[in-house]
Structure formats: C-alpha cells, structure tokens
Amino acid sequence: MHGTGMQAETTEGARAGRFISTGIRDFDAVLGGGLTPNRSYLLEGTPGSGKTTIALQFLLEGVRVGDRGLYITLSETVAELREVARSHHWTLDGVELFELVSSEGLDPDAEQSILEPSEVELGETIRGVIECVDRIRPARVVFDSLSEMRLLAQNSLRYRRQILALKQYFSTRECTVLMLDDRSSDPADVQLHSIAHGVITLQQAVEDYGAERRRLRVVKMRGVKYRGGYHDFVIETGGVQVFPRLIAAEHHREFSGEMAGSGVVALDRMLGGGLTRGTNTLLSGPSGVGKTSTAIRCALAALERGEKAAYYLFDEGMGTMLARARSMGMDLRPYLDSGQLRVQQIDPAEISPGEFATWVRQAVVEGGASFLAIDSLNAFLQAMPGEKYLLLQMHELLSFLNQQGVITMLVLGQHGVIGEIRSDIDLSYLSDSIILFRFFEAKGSMLKAISVSKSRTTPHESSIREFTLGPGGLLVGEPLKDFDGVFSGLPHYRGATPLMPQQHDGSRE
Questions:
Q1: In angstroms, how far is the first alpha carbon of the chain from the final one?
Q2: For residue 13, is pLDDT > 60?
Q3: Is the confidence at residue 482, as pLDDT, over 50?
Q4: Domains along the chain?
Q5: Which of 24-28, 256-260, 312-316, 468-472 has the highest mean pLDDT?
Q6: Using one digit for the tens of pLDDT, what is the confidence trace for 186-197?
Q7: E-strand spans in 145-248?
Q8: C-alpha span between 125 and 73 (Å, rounded)
Q9: Residues with Cβ < 8 Å from 119, sequence gap 6 or more?
Q10: DSSP letters spanning 229-281
Q11: In what order do the strands lie in the sheet with 230-236?
Q12: Which pick of 235, 266, 396, 481 has the fewest CB atoms within 10 Å?
C-alpha cells in the first residue's frame, strides 16, 4: 500500500465492514485499516504506557458508531476509569463498566454479587464475565487485565486454557475484544501471542533528561498487511496521538526540476545556477559563521516568489531569529502574519523523531510548503536515541522531501573556529549539495569564507569566496585566488586580490 492508496484502502475496508476503527486514525493506518471484527487482540505494555487510554478510545469510538461497549475491570475501579476519562474531557455515557472488585465486594457480610479476585476461584470470575456479556450483548469489549487472571490461575496450563475458553466464548458472541496485559510476568513468556488474533506492544522509556518517550509496535496481525517497526505516540489531553513511521516510497508527486534562486546572485553562480527543486543543501560550518543567515536568505527568496515555507528552529528562539533577520534587511514578520511562512520553535527534549517527521509531512502535504529548513541538525541529534538512527531517520525524511519537490536547507554546526573543524555527525553522503563556511584570519581580522564542495545536479564552482553579513544581508565577494590555506584558518597571501570592506552600503549582488 503506497501513499494515499493506504488511506484509500483503509477507508474502503472500513466502509465494507472489513475493519472497525480504534478511534485513533493514525493507529488504524498502522494496523492496516483498523481491527478485524469479532476477534481478540492483546494490548500489552508496562503500567503507564497508555493501555487504558487506548482501550477507552476504542470503546468511545464504538459509542460514536452505535456499537455497545463493555469495560470489564479487575485491576482498576470504576471511579478511577471515570477519572481517566474526565482528564481527557470525555464522558463514559454509553459504555458499560463492569467492576469485578469493589468496596461492597470486600465486605464479608455483603451479598457476593460483585467478585473479588483474591477470594474466589478463577472459574467463578470467568462465570461473572460471561453473565455480564450475556446480559449486555456488547460489540466491543475491553478486558483489564490479564495479570489478575494469571494470578488466579496459579499455573500456566490452567491460565492458557481459561484464556482460550474466553476467546472462544467472545467469538461466538460476535465481540471484538481488547485484552490488556501489564507484562508483570516473565517478559519472555509469549504464550498469549499465539492465542490472540493480533498483538500490539506499547513501550515507555524515560531518558536522563526530558519527557518520557512512548512508542508502539504491531507484533502480529493475522491476515492484514500492517505497518511494521516502531511508531512514536504521545498521550495528550484528548487521547492518544500516533505518529506512523515515515516511509518515503509511499509519498511521491510529480514536480518540475527547475532551478530557484537563493536571493544572492553570486551564491547562485557558485551553486551552478541556484537551488534545484527536489534537492537538499547542507550548510556546514562553525557557530556564528553565517549558516542560519544564509538559510533565512534562501527562505526569503522563496517567500518573495510567492511560495510557502516552513522553518524549524531547534537552537535559538524565534524572537532572536526574527530580530537578527530584520537587522540584516530580511523582515520575515509580514510572511509570518499572512501564514505564508511557518516558524516552529522546537525543544528537542520534548519531541520524538516520529512526531517531528509527522510535522514535516503535514507542512508539505497539507500546508503546501515548497521550502523547508531544519536549524540545526546538532539539536535534532539530541532527540534521537543514537547517531545510527539519526542517519536512518534523515535518509527517509530527506527522501520524502526530495520526492515532494521541496527545497530543503539543513544547518549543521561544527566544533572549532579556525584550524581543525570537526562534526558530531557526517551527513555529507545524504546531501545533494554542500556549502562550507569557514572563519579565517587575515590582516588582523576574523573574516568569513564560503565554498560549494558538492552538487549532484549542477556543475558548481570550486572557488573559495569571502562573504560578509550586514544591514544589506548576505554579500559574496570575488574568489580568493591569491590565498592558500583559507579553509585551514591559516591563509597565506600570494597576490594582490583586495579583501572586502567589512561595512558596505547594503547593496547585494
């Protein structure tokens, strides 16, 4: 299933009755269309991973479409379930809540109409569930949780037999069942996986700094082509939001490979004519050398052509960026106010890679952005579990952007000022074009040099040019033909080429 074809098949399958929705649109897409009706599914995860929230959304979606829902709880009280719903501004009207343990059930003098798992046999608990289902006749059932059933069974053989009996019973009553399990038993014990029609695993990881990260994986789903791998998700007020793993091959559209100007004529000449649509350009150099200013200049050129642009800030604040751009004659405020430009400031400690990829996809597919900048990759690295995964993530993300015809600018900060310059990561092989920025010392001043070291689509200049930043924006000078060792930071003057004045009149070539 590729591109919009996946969504189309999902909708068609749901309309034909092949699937029922979980109530979470992107979760349905991960599942290949939703859940097959009248089957039992295992939703497993440690406490706090999001099982109860997903289960309630599943039942509330049933209320919306007219399916009767039943929540059978052995682990949480009805009051706790209602509190969870209230935190999301939901009402559980229309959902039957059947509690197998309550304060009345703990009273030895009370009539044993509500069962307490620690004091009754497993068979009585099963009979209580069956009586409830026969009375309510639900189409959707949540069974929370299997860990209590496991304790009552006391041995794995009895436990498996009872789960098989429940599964058979629910199938004869045409129920679609979510069985929750907190994985409190041996994690290597996967006997439930063979029983369930489908298995979804939820994970929650806490980093040394920042918010916890949640992700899910479909372990199996019989008879359905689901989207494999891990998918990030978050729990927010209003429920769970899933961010399906980006697969670039599913997104492709026709576009013209025309050249677009950067807004600086001399830089366009260095690039071999400008920026090619459907390519990405890496701006690499030490901090403060002018990478962000160059990316802003290219974004402004796109905006002046009437295109939409998206700029993702990982490093500095949006106010600082706008003030700096305005001081160089690049006022972005009118484009922000009109919605033509979207600047999003991102805290890398609070966002997952899947969530960021979803934002990018929405900005391009739904927002119509044809220019996109990520500033910078150094901070984006901090949102990733490791360098290996950053490269894989960026490969998929850049492939998607290229296939959409987007001009992408990537800012990468390097360590050092002059002399030896190092990078945390190497993205040169993923980049279609690379622009190198360097400081160099000459005549007692700290100057800046720029060069294009790679372009896959155009014959680029190999020259090294001096450039300055000022009230007129970005000004690129003539090639530094009479200097050797400029990129080493220790140049040697071998001719009469004049250096650029550090203050200019604001004109731009």
A1: 49
A2: no
A3: yes
A4: 4-245 (3.40.50.300), 250-493 (3.40.50.300)
A5: 24-28
A6: 665 677 888 999
A7: 176-181, 198-205, 213-221, 230-236, 239-243
A8: 11
A9: none
A10: SEEEEEEETTEEEEEPPP-GGG--------EE--S-HHHHHHTTSSEETT-EE
A11: 95-99, 69-73, 140-144, 176-181, 40-45, 198-205, 213-221, 230-236, 239-243
A12: 481
The residue among 333, 353, 357 whose CA lies nearest residue 343 is 333
Neighbours of 427 (CB within 10 A): 19
CA 378 to each of CA 242, 313, 496: distance values in angstroms, whole numbers, following the listed order: 25, 11, 39
Give the distance between the most distant pair of CA atoms in the chain.
104
CB of 65 within 8 A of CB of 278?
Answer: no
Closest by Cα among 240, 220, 253 to 32: 220
Predicted pLDDT of residue 301: 97
Secondary structure, 3-state, 222-237: CCCCCCCCEEEEEEEC
Mean pLDDT within 260-278: 95
Q: Which residue has the tokens 């092949």?
A: 18
Residues with Cβ within 8 Å of residue 129, at least 6 apart in sequence: 72, 98, 100, 143, 166
CA distance 35 to 221: 9
Backbone angles phi, psi at 35, to 5 degrees: -105, 140
391: its two tokens: 């490269």
Section 76-90 average pLDDT: 94
Q: What percent of the chain is helix, strand and coil (3-state, nearest 5)?
A: 35, 25, 40
pLDDT, average across residues 212-217: 92
Predicted TM-score (pTM) of the model is 0.83
CA distance 387 to 243: 21
